[in-house]
């Protein structure tokens, strides 16, 4: 455990080079999770408690830190239920925010199992922890980069095929409502901040995100105690994000649709059959031009510890 905490402090303290995936959360839920265990010789323990530490640098000054507690409960031999409780801290030029972030709930069922592969399906959702309208100390509405919640109720579903060497997964995330963010450039006109810097953030007033579809293609290398994986994570936003502009009209935000593509690598070590740790790193290959939801990252890195029982 001393090694684990040392690596966690290293992860938080240093800025790794690279870019990471920028999704709204469903890429790490249920059947869509990266680097899932697969062992036909030993009965898999479906109950687990995970804790992870995340650091993300954005395309502007905000740096995002997230500590997440994750619980997985077995419901018979084929079913499991996942709960994720994150706490998020953001620090940037416009201020700091820190609160509980959006809660994730996901039910997963194994629908096919053989000696060669398993097929799992998941349904779930995300619950907002606030209305995504946190303000600066001076009372100005902050961009979505600084928000600890997306401010929406989201429905999520997905399916995966997992073998010893490969994982293929796809999923969809559908927001059900617009949030209550009030960030517009004109709302910062009376601030002392550099207005050219303010305009680097996309307006997100009453943001309604588009629907996302993801595909995960992952090659796994599994050994007795060590495992690693390399994969690609494309995410397509099918329809434009929408906001309410300064004139009070609902408008579609240009260049918010299309592909965001990341390369993902994981490195894991099993201390024994019950406990393990994992490091995840991501590098963005393609990103969308406009990101009013503030999810774009220059770096994604996460270190986690898992205890199965």
How would you portray this structure in words?
- It contains 2 helices and 15 strands.
- It has 309 residues and is mainly β.
- The radius of gyration is 20 Å and the shape is elongated.
- The two termini are 18 Å apart.
- 40% of the residues are buried.
In brief:
The protein has helices at residues 2-13, 195-198; strands at residues 48-57, 63-74, 79-92, 95-100, 103-113, 117-127, 154-163, 166-175, 212-222, 226-237, 242-244, 250-252, 258-270, 275-286, 299-308.
DSSP summary, beta strand count? 15
- Helix/strand order: HEEEEEEEEHEEEEEEE
Proportion of helical residues = under 10%
Q: What average pLDDT do the residues reach? A: 90
- End-to-end gap: 18 Å
**What's the tally of helices?**
2
Strand content: over 45%
Low-confidence stretches: 1-22
Strand order of the largest sheet: 1-2-3-5-6-7-8-9-10-13-14-15
General shape: elongated
Radius of gyration: 20 Å
What kind of sheet is the major sheet? Answer: 12 strands, antiparallel, barrel
Class computed from helices, strands and strand pairing: mainly beta
List keywords for this structure.
twelve-stranded antiparallel β-barrel, 2 helices, 309 residues, mainly beta, two-stranded antiparallel sheet
